[in-house]
Amino acid sequence: MVKTRKLLENIFFRHIPLLITMLFVFMPIYWAMVISFKHEKDIMKKPVQLLPNPATFENYQFVWSKTGFSRYFFNTILVSGLSALAVVIFAVLVAYGLSRFRFKGKRSFMMIFLATQLIPYNMLIIPLFLIYKNMGIIGSLTSLIITYTTVFLPFNAVLMKSFVDGIPIEMEEAAMIDGCNRMEVIFKIVLPILAPGLVAIGSFAFLSSWNEYIFPVMFINNKDNFVVSVGLNFLIGQNVLMYGPLAAGSIIALSVPILIFAYIQKFLVQGLSAGAVKG
Amino acid sequence: MSRKAICVLLIVLLVFSLTLSGCDNTKVNQTQKTDGTQQTSGGEKIKLDVWNCDSAPMYTDLFDEMLADYMNQNQNVVVEYTGIPWDTSKQKFDTAIATNTAPDLAYIVHSWVASFAGMGGLVPMDNYFNNWKEKDEFDLRFFDLDYLILDGVRYSVPCEMLYPVIWYRPDLYAEKNLSVPKDFDEFFGNIEKLTDKSKDQYGFTIRGGGGSTMMLEAFLISYIGADSYFDDSGQCVIDSPEGIEGMKRFASMYNKYTPESDITNGYKEMVAVFGSGTAASVMHNLTSLPMHKENLGDGNFSTYTFPKAENGKQVVCMCAVAGTAGYSIFKSSKNPDAAWDLIKFLINKENNYKWCSTLGVLPINKSVLEEDLFTDDLIFRNAKEVLENENITITLSPLYLPDFDAIHVNLLEPAFQEVLTGKKTAEEFLHEWAEAFEKAEQEYRNK
């Protein structure tokens, strides 16, 4: 009796809700996947085909070679990777400073730092455009890396601060008593313990950069420097929509974030909940 | 040990900064852009930047071909082409004009000309146009439209023209023994007869999302049979009793003879509903031709022109989503003369044919309009007949108003959805519409 009740509870409160959630989450991805393997003429066909028959790779070939997606993909990895690296380096420095030192204006600094997150990106476009134009870097990937590092740093630095707060200061003091200086303490004690935080923040920054659209579309004119988010929109015209290549491009664009999520999801959850119970 | 740590940090920073410099591979181009020229070993070449407000691959192919031909014929010119994704295209142009980084010339939809000219972003083209020897080869009716010549200054030249049509499925019409409607009663009657909700079959599909009211505008002007958007006293005709009647009839189709999802459907969803066979007819311009061919196959669809209004006039309205589009030269160009030369090349007979036959639009070059494609192909032939039929009036939307786009996008589109859901009456909606345009028109006249 108890066994049956437990089984029913499991089915109704665990398996069915999970199944429904999974359907909601996977349906769009599944559908994009199916369309990406269909011939253009089969996409609109009625009755709807749940599986591509016959399947084709032509959408992937088209999007990869014809629209310059291979180039956009490389650019996106470069921009997202370097932005994430820069965010991690600066976030560690900012977080350590905020966590371990007392200085005048610390609270105000934190407030201003976080307040920058409230500014809509659209408001930044023209000022940043003019600054980069005067610097001679408008249209380059550098302009994107600088922008992403700047706009994603505050949130990630504050997040990193909660990781640093979680490391007992006594550990650093003990290391200093044993003869370590501040740099050695950071590199030998703090950073190894911070590893999950570094991964979480690096991934946040990477994925945020990967998905960002408005800055590249505004700053970049040379198609050699376009990124994936812009490349996908190339397939959506005012009067033309290339469903097959668009679905194939979406799957390619999704592949990197999915792989990253699969690898670091436990760090991400840890990162999001870090400091959640602190007073 | 501490030295080692500092070394590691410095190396990371060095690698990072070197990589940053390394990926800055457009610096040369951007530096060149500021003076508009490019130094080459063979001497000085003129560099022209061409933007297209639409980045769809079919445009890219066309431009690649035409620009390669141009560069072959003009070895001293280097042309760089950039297509801008449509959904952010206007914002991109606005930013470029505001920061003085606009291209030399661009292909733009003509509903933007007033706004760009108002920002001081466009070069007057009167001198170029007046001295253009070949201009008589073109249908000059479409060069002298009031939204291309603002305050007496010409800011753009067209390369294509189109107007709204009703796309329909002749096979479904034949099944129900229906013919092309001669008036709006037959138009609505056909739609009702073609609907069978139990089979998920609808007579019509409405564009309720982005661009909805620009298309609706064309419908209402045809329904009213209006030959101008404003009457002599500056009153907008859209909220006339005929307009209100047309609006009520149009809105009453929603979710009865059209799918429920229409309320948020933009262009692509609307075309997909027609393309999947769910709707028997749809209102759009000629540019959806390639999509219909792809979705339904050649010969499985056709077009008809908006029927006669109750006042006996047959009117087609050239609106923001079904009018002309073409080329403008931007103020930031350092080579406007070269830009004009390229524009002439892009709209010459050969290229105008290439352009129009690929995109499914009507040419503005008179001899191209007489090519076999435009006289033999049913869709083009129907479209051409409208241009030649003296009994059909072509009415223009007031695209010359700088606020035209903003009124539609910010005010009318959300309000139209309220009408469809019954939260707003047709009268309220059209009065708001008329009021907004009358105010904009008054401001324009008083300028």
In terms of topology, how is this protein built?
The complex is a heterodimer of chains A (279) and B (447).
Chain A: H1 2-36, H2 40-43, H3 58-66, H4 69-100, H5 106-115, H6 121-135, H7 141-165, H8 169-177, H9 182-211, H10 214-219, H11 228-233, H12 243-273
Helix pairs in contact in A: 1-12, 3-12, 4-7, 4-9, 7-9, 8-9, 9-12
Chain B: H1 2-22, H2 27-35, E1 37-40, E2 43-52, H3 57-73, E3 77-83, H4 89-98, E4 105-109, H5 113-118, H6 126-130, E5 149-150, E6 153-154, E7 157-161, E8 165-168, H7 170-175, H8 184-193, H9 212-224, H10 241-252, H11 267-275, E9 281-284, H12 289-296, E10 302-304, E11 314-318, E12 324-329, H13 336-346, H14 349-359, H15 366-369, H16 372-376, H17 378-388, E13 392-396, H18 404-420, H19 426-446
Parallel strand pairs in B: 2-3, 2-4, 11-13
Antiparallel strand pairs in B: 1-2, 4-12, 5-6, 7-12, 8-9, 8-10
Report on the architecture of this protein.
Chain A has helices spanning 2-36, 40-43, 58-66, 69-100, 106-115, 121-135, 141-165, 169-177, 182-211, 214-219, 228-233, 243-273. By secondary structure, chain A is mostly helical. The mean pLDDT of chain A is 87. Chain A is flat. Chain B has 447 residues and is an alpha/beta fold. Chain B folds into 2 domains: 39-162 and 322-378, D-Maltodextrin-Binding Protein, domain 2; 165-321 and 391-446, D-Maltodextrin-Binding Protein, domain 2 (3-Layer(aba) Sandwich). Chain B is 46% helix and 14% strand. Chain B contains 19 helices and 13 strands. In chain B, strands 1, 2, 3, 4, 7 and 12 form a 6-stranded mixed beta sheet that branches. In chain B, strands 9-8-10 form a 3-stranded antiparallel beta sheet. In chain B, helix 3 (57-73) packs antiparallel against helix 14, helix 11 runs parallel beside helix 12 and helix 18 runs antiparallel to helix 19 (426-446).
